[in-house]
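pinned: reference chain
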Amino acid sequence: MRVLLISSNLPDVKTALTTVGFVVETARNADAAEANLRSAWYDIVVFDIDGPQADVLGRVQGWRRRNIKSHLVVLASRLTLQTRVDLLDAGADCYVLKPNHLSELLARLRGLCRRGEQVKESVLRVLDLEIDLSCHMVRRGGRAIPLTPREYALLRFLALHRGQIVPRSLILEHVYEGRDESNVVNVYIRYLRNKIDRGFDVPLILTRYGQGYMLRGEKEHQDTTPFTLAAG
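pinned: its structure tokens
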């Protein structure tokens, strides 16, 4: 599981997370974290708000508006009741109070890992694409599109993180059980493009070379200049 730790000074947290098997990247503050969140995907974001942070609630709300679906855990020394309520309403999954926070933080993260990719919607919609999660049915423009189990798993994973670049390594880990088959992602992206995009004016599956793949979100519907549409 990949974790982004946003903190100016929490080496004990990074060490504890790394020791139990998390892959941890760090950002010194929320501004620095923006670059990480634009270029990579994380299972969990741990946000220490005791440092100099501007508009914490605004940050959380903005990330959720941008469809960043990573679980979000807030660390703080003190939180008023109203701040706790506001953070949860803004989209944080939970909060942990310092000090003596490591054992609770690890327990919270284990709980979030067990929850996995819980999805509130029963149908995911991207422009004219519909993915019915209850019966594994896919339609585009009202037309049913039959997919193999592997194709469906890949499309579902991209849809859960629509609007975000998903690295090839994470697709291999989450969809193909971590198999080290460098070409399998390219092959199934090509299969999906042939079924999802062929015959439609607006392609939905985008590629950013050297970074990964993405299912088009609202922002990309307006502007696709940073992306190439070639399979690769």
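why pinned: Confidence is low (pLDDT under 50) at residues 221-232. Residues 2-115 form a domain with the Rossmann fold fold (CATH 3.40.50.2300).
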